[in-house]
Design brief:
alpha+beta, FMN binding, globular, oxidoreductase, 9 strands, 33% strand, Pnp Oxidase, Chain A
Length: 215
């Protein structure tokens, strides 16, 4: 069997550059513009993002979750508050997000601070989810060991029976986090590895400073 030489796997990035005059003054507006283009291009899971956290011992951890809201205040996702990511955030609220839009030769990297969204906001989103997803939130003790998939399905069936008579309530252990950004980088692939990178940095007066970074 021949060995796979991954050191020779490469391609050129030729879809186009990113120029300062094309950037919006606000990075949230720039992100929304790029997100719309990712959706319009038919990318699979355009809202999928890597959420990187650090636990109390300093060990980083990453996982992919779906962005569920973005506005001037930040980027929102939902999770079990007993999950590993939530425990990490409780120990260190600094979080990094990463959107890998490979098909468009783009990346967005966000550094910020996580805070819980209001219960009202969590409830509003929870009630918008399919019933099966609501039940799954109750059935799964996220990040905890489970002996088998059969047991997980039994827990799901038990919750389905328990809430069969009416609305499924919001679990008190489930809700959203909003990442309030302090730094956002937009990366556009370029020929000869001369990529375009622009970083927005939040200033003390609430304005954003923008600078080009070397690739």
């Amino acid at each position: 069997m021949s060995e796979l030489s991954i050191d020779q796997l490469r391609r050129e990035y030729l879809q186009g550059g990113l120029h300062r005059e094309h950037l919006k003054d606000c990075p949230i507006a720039q992100f929304e513009h790029w997100l719309k283009q990712a959706v319009d291009a038919g990318l699979q899971d355009p809202t999928a993002m890597t959420v990187a956290t650090v636990d109390a011992s300093g060990q980083p951890s990453q996982r992919i979750v779906l962005l569920k809201a973005v506005d001037k205040d930040g980027f929102v996702f939902y999770t079990n508050y007993g999950s590993r990511k939530a425990q990490d955030i409780a120990a260190n609220s600094k979080v990094s997000l990463h959107f890998p839009w490979h098909a468009l030769e783009r990346q967005v990297k966000i550094a910020g601070v996580a805070e819980k969204v209001s219960q009202k906001e969590s409830l509003q989103y929870f009630l918008s989810r399919p019933e099966e997803s609501q039940l799954a939130a109750w059935a799964s003790e996220q990040s905890r060991p489970v002996s088998s998939r059969e047991l997980l399905m039994q827990q799901f069936a038990s919750m389905k029976q328990k809430f069969s008579a009416g609305k499924i309530p919001l679990p008190d252990f489930w809700g959203g986090f909003r990442i309030k950004p302090v730094r956002i980088e937009f990366w556009q692939g370029g020929a000869n590895r001369l990529h375009d990178r622009f970083e927005y940095q939040l200033q003390d007066d609430g304005d954003w400073d923008t600078q080009r970074l070397a690739p």
